[in-house]
Amino acid sequence: MCPTTLRPSRRVPLSKPLAEPVTRVAIVDYGMGNLDSVARATEECGGSPVVTASEKEIARAPAVILPGVGAFAKGMERIRERDLDEILDTQVRRRGVPLLGLCLGMHLLATRGDEGGETSGLGWIEGEVRRLPSEDGLRVPHVGWNEVHHQRASPLLAGAESGRDFYFVHSYHLVCAEPTHVVATTPYGTSFTSIVQAENVYGVQFHPEKSQRAGFQLLRNFLAIAGRASA
Amino acid sequence: MLKTRVMPTLLFKDLGLVKGVRFDSWRPVGSVMQSVKVYNMREVDELVFLDITATLEGREPDFELVDDIADECFMPLTVGGGIRSLEDVRRLLAVGADKIALNTSAVRPPDLVEQTAATFGAQCVVASIDATRRDAGTYEVLVASGTERTGLDPVEHAIDLEARGAGEILITSVDRDGTMEGYDLDLIGAVAAGVNVPVIASGGAGTYEHMAEAISAGAAAVAAASIFHFTEQTPLEAKRYLRERGVPVRI
């Protein structure tokens, strides 16, 4: 077990009057990730983050973020160890709660992945997670700032301009079986899927929490989606 | 297109930021938090924060300080210095570090490169190599802030680190560090040609031209400290210069 205690923020005074209701966001703690960074960015974007592995907390939250760095097999193993797959499935499929997967969190949305041994994923986005091809002198992992080109409309991209740079650090990518799930792509060699959406399930390959202004806009859009869904 | 990164490096010693010459003659260059806030406001590509005396003094990383830095830092943050166990790595990631730089603990046991990559993924392992040129034109890897020889060749060491799971290599020339005379292009070229992971060039940047040279030599990113601390030059201007030279950068 890998409990993460989030220190209370010193930046948002408790007495601060709130102009609009703050969206509670459950940031799923399955011991794989930069939880504090995701929580800080969520807070900075006006959300109220709760880093948690508790079924109750997740069930109460009107929005869920599935963060994560690391390998697919290990990630799924930890989610199953903590019995989080069932509650997440209930929230996402039965209750229609918006969920955003970040990096490995996006990969876990897929049917299966082959990082660390063939493993089935959460299965909400039909597709497979495969290693980036390292031919043509392409260095893997793909690390740094790269463009995100919009392929179709999504509320996640509201007000965002196509082609902006986001921060990536990954060796694997999600190959969607259903082309309409591909919201945006990123050129690296050929190109890979950098944003997916299937109804209330969203995933991004990059790290919005580390992508400064462009990333914050995307997180704010996700909070707005959650706000509308729970209104 | 993937952009070439320009990364300010913050070296931490005792209670403040320092910058030296050839890993010596350290001068204080201000407070950590102030620098982090400025770099965050300027939206730099990435920050590298290295505690250069933690290993020498047998100290563990300053987790609280990293926590404070990460709270102000909405860009990727690489943290190194004094990391001796997988638990140190876990704690640093939990307080907000995105990547962990392993230098001494990539040479001495326990092998933290392999363990960190297996547990948290290759993408968060930056293997940091400090190298010095020997008389015969060969290079040698140094550890413990450049104070200990290893007998290792930096290119072979880099290849080995990649095989053990490093996601990036940060190669620093101890001889050029702080001199602002330019990166050691032979060293950078040889390491970049030897591995398939991105290579970050470090040590010697004094002009934007030096950065362009390191990129031509094969670096995927350029790290620099003195140029940003002691001159009027900035990461943004560096990228404007590089863009004019046809290097893809994020402006």
Number of strands of chain A: 13
User: For this structure, what is the CATH homologous superfamily of chain A?
Assistant: Class I glutamine amidotransferase (GATase) domain
Number of domains of chain A: 1
Morphology call of chain A: globular
Which whole number gives the mean pLDDT of chain A? 90
Q: What is the C-level CATH assignment of chain B?
A: Alpha Beta
Figure out the total of helices of chain A: 6
Q: What amount of the residues of chain B lies in strands?
A: 25-35%
Task: Report how far the terminal alpha carbons of chain B are from each other.
Answer: 13 Å
Low-confidence stretches of chain A: 1-19
**Mean of residue pLDDT values of chain B:** 93
Number of domains of chain B: 1
Walk me through this protein's architecture.
The complex is a heterodimer of chains A (231) and B (251). Chain A has 231 residues and is an alpha/beta fold. Chain A has one domain (24-230): Rossmann fold (3-Layer(aba) Sandwich). Helices cover 26% and strands 31% of the residues of chain A. Chain A has helices at residues 35-44, 55-60, 72-81, 84-94, 104-107, 212-230; strands spanning 24-28, 48-52, 63-66, 99-102, 110-113, 119-120, 125-131, 142-150, 164-170, 172-176, 182-188, 190-198, 201-204. The longest helix of chain A is centred in the C-terminal third of the chain and has 19 residues, at 212-230. The N and C termini of chain A lie far apart (35 Å). Residues 1-19 of chain A have low confidence and may be disordered. Chain B has 251 residues and is of the alpha/beta class. Chain B has a single domain (5-244), classed as TIM Barrel. Helices cover 33% and strands 26% of the residues of chain B. Chain B contains nine helices and twelve strands. Chain B has an eight-stranded parallel beta barrel with strand order 1-4-5-6-7-10-11-12, surrounded by seven helices. The mean pLDDT of chain B is 93. Chain A binds chain B through residues 2, 4, 7, 9, 11, 32-37, 40-41, 44, 69-71, 74, 104, 134, 139-147, 165, 167, 169-171, 187-188, 207, 209-213, 215-216, and chain B through 1-5, 43, 45-46, 67, 70-71, 74-76, 90, 93-99, 118-124, 167-168, 196-198, 220-221, 250.
